[in-house]
Design goal:
single chain, about 425 residues, alpha/beta, Alkaline Phosphatase, subunit A, 2 domains, 8-stranded mixed beta sheet, 15 helices, about 35% helix
Length: about 425
């Protein structure tokens, strides 16, 4: 195509929420001052979006898949392969991949699934695991750290299956679990072997990490030790059509977590890493915004994500989440100042809601606002769940977003004669 129009999707991860009594019945997004987001809403077209479908809590991986136009009901094979791809592991056919947390346990009881949100030393912990647990039975163990408490695991060997249950209980204060084959597994023997190997791996990580120097230092400093690895999200390699082929767009992705970065790599997008983009509350939002503006110089489309709002939601910390929303607003403000919106269309949204009252993803719709080229403005004055719900865009699903965006960009293919 010769059309020079540009497109941006900017996502505040987990930014949607529910009313909070302590905030006068407002959501964290409604309570936080957001001048840049409000400008986008006031001069743009607004609505609500269900990333997957009404009432379905979306994972960040399935939500991003849907928003980019890839039906997760068809293509999703578990989040493990995306996490592994994102940390640089070449997931091959037959591999079983997991996303993992460095966690804190006392005996079998989970004290903290994120080991106090450990930020340093996980590379040393991962190296010790790789050295001491290179194989289990005839299965090769490939383990790499990601950001903060996150990591990725790949099991490579004959006769494996992803149809196994979780080890991570997803809640503190309970024992971590033993994996077992899922009912109705296509290959019960392969599932039994994979569960056995995974359980052995988990126990051996506890043996390796319990007395590791990094954890001795953490205990001495009054910090929680990262003394076990808890895998989850088993999956197998997935084949996805490159985004450039699907939409005719030269695309880039600027995100902070390997889970979503791996999806971008599967879609053959240019995955741009930004110094200072930590995936935590301390992330440099202005560096992310500057990278988005720079990427538009030689890309047609950019998807960007700031992780921090999701963290406050998971922690049930509304003030923390509001501070993170302010980071999103500052980033959007910089993009508004630096990008020509006579030729660019931007959509601002969240990949899912993470209400502080739930401390997890919920199935509540998230606000959307389109601004710039090809947009028909409505009468919405502010960016937020209730305000955007009154907008001209109505109620979208994630799978519809790229159709809407490329239409506004003037780059949609006509259906019919």
């Amino acid at each position: 195509m010769t059309n020079s129009a540009k497109g941006v999707i900017f996502i505040g991860d987990g930014m949607g929420g529910r009313p909070v009594p302590e905030l006068g019945g407002m959501t964290t997004l409604e309570a936080q001052e957001t001048p840049a987001l409000d400008l986008v809403a006031r001069e743009g077209a607004c609505g609500l979006m269900d990333p997957i479908a009404p009432g379905i809590p979306a994972g960040s991986d399935t939500a991003h898949m849907a928003i980019l136009g890839y039906d997760p009901h068809t293509y999703y094979r578990g989040r493990g392969p995306f996490e592994a791809k994102g940390v640089g592991i070449d997931v091959q056919v037959g591999d079983v991949a997991f996303r993992c947390n460095f966690s804190t346990v006392e005996e079998r009881r989970v004290v903290d699934r994120r080991a106090g949100r450990i930020k340093e030393g996980t590379d040393q912990l991962a190296a010790a695991i790789s050295e001491d647990v290179p194989t289990v039975e005839d299965v090769e163990i490939i383990f790499k750290p990601s950001v903060e408490h996150r990591a990725a695991l790949v099991l490579r060997g004959p006769g494996l299956s992803h149809e196994i249950s979780e080890v991570d209980p997803h809640d503190p204060g309970v024992d971590y679990l033993k994996s077992h084959p899922l009912p109705g597994a296509e290959d019960p023997e392969a599932a039994e072997k994979t569960a056995r190997v995974l359980n052995e791996f988990v126990e051996r990580t506890h043996e390796v990490l319990e007395g590791h120097p990094v954890n001795r230092q953490r205990r001495a400093a009054g910090e929680l030790p990262a003394n076990i690895v808890l895998p989850r999200g088993a999956g197998t390699a997935v084949q996805l059509q490159p985004l450039s082929e699907r939409y005719g767009l030269h695309a880039a992705m600027i995100v902070e977590v390997d889970l979503v970065r791996g999806l971008g790599q599967y879609l053959d997008m240019d995955v741009i890493k930004v110094d200072g983009a930590t995936g935590g509350q301390d992330t440099d939002e202005m560096a992310i915004a500057a990278a988005v503006a720079a990427a538009l110089d030689d890309h047609d489309f950019v998807l960007a994500n700031i992780k921090a709002p999701d963290l406050g939601g998971h922690d049930g910390n509304c003030r923390m989440k509001m501070e993170a929303i302010a980071k999103v607003d500052r980033a959007v403000g910089h993009i508004l100042d630096e990008v020509d919106f006579a030729t660019t269309t931007i959509m601002i949204t969240a990949d899912h809601s993470t209400p502080c009252s739930v401390k997890d993803h919920s199935g509540d719709a998230v606000p959307v606002a389109f601004y710039g080229r090809g947009v028909r403005p409505d009468d919405v004055e502010r960016y937020g769940e209730r305000a955007c719900g009154k907008g001209i865009m109505g109620h979208l699903r994630g799978m519809e977003v790229m159709h809407v965006l490329t239409n506004m960009m003037g780059r949609a293919e006509k259906f019919g004669a």
